[in-house]
Amino acid sequence: MTFDQRLRLAVKAKYKRQVSAARLARDLHHSTQGAFCVSSEAVRKWLCGQSKPRFDAICVLESFLGCRLLSDGLVPACRSPDSDSPSPSK
Questions:
Q1: Alpha-carbon distance values, 78 to 32, 61, 87, 89 (Å)
Q2: Surface-to-core class of residue 5, CB atoms within 10 Å of its CB (0-12 exposed, 13-18 middle, 19+ buried)
Q3: Does the residue 62 lie in any domain?
């Protein structure tokens, strides 16, 4: 399965329907409190397979959508900043 196919499936699973590239771009921006900005045109290209996002954008997408988008195992999994912190000891 290609990246754009996995992305479309993940978006449909999150929203329970198909959404526009503009809506996804806006929601990504809001979910990061403005820290991640992407144009609707870039998102459209990701969704139709004309381009792939940078690794940092893939990490934001994975966090927002709640699933892995890179399944080929060639790139390390995205981790949240607090995943490196040790668990509290008893």
A1: 16, 10, 19, 25
A2: exposed
A3: yes
Query: Residue 23, by phi and psi: left (phi above 0), alpha (psi -120 to 50) or beta?
Result: alpha
Residue type, 88: P
What pTM did the predictor assign? 0.78
Range of the domain at 17: 3-67
What pLDDT, in 10s, does the model give residues 7-43? Answer: 999 999 999 999 999 999 999 999 999 999 999 999 9
* Distance between CA atoms of residues 20 and 26, nearest Å: 10
Cβ(4)–Cβ(47) under 8 Å?
Answer: yes
Give the separation between CA 13 and CA 88, rounded to whole angstroms.
34
